[in-house]
Write a structure and sequence with these properties.
mainly alpha
Amino acid sequence: MSTHQIAAKPLCWWMDTQFGLALLLPLPAWLILSALGSRPATSWWMLLLVAPLVEEFAFRGTLQGALLRTTVGKIQYGAISLANLITAALFGGAHAIHHSAAFDLLTFFPGLVFGYFRERYSLLLPAILLHSYYNLGLLW
């Protein structure tokens, strides 16, 4: 099934098996962070509401959207576009400003997941919800 066929049914993202699998992806990282006693120095509403909304509108909405309108941004590497790769790298780099390089790398991979679902459905909502859900693990 092509991306264009899936995008024609954008309201079905919550029934997508791939979306369900994306909900399982952060579990190992959450366990490691919990074992290390790593806790964010910010409030729950920033992690679960403000950051996902602002970051997804900025990165997946504005940046990835603009890159997808270019010929280069549409280049695909399997299921991942160059627009998604660039956006995820900048997303990780933006987190490196306040965090370690390891956190930067760990943020890159969820950025790819968020970007994948943004492109898969041509919607920001799945990316925003996944972002909020992934951040939930930081509160354990």
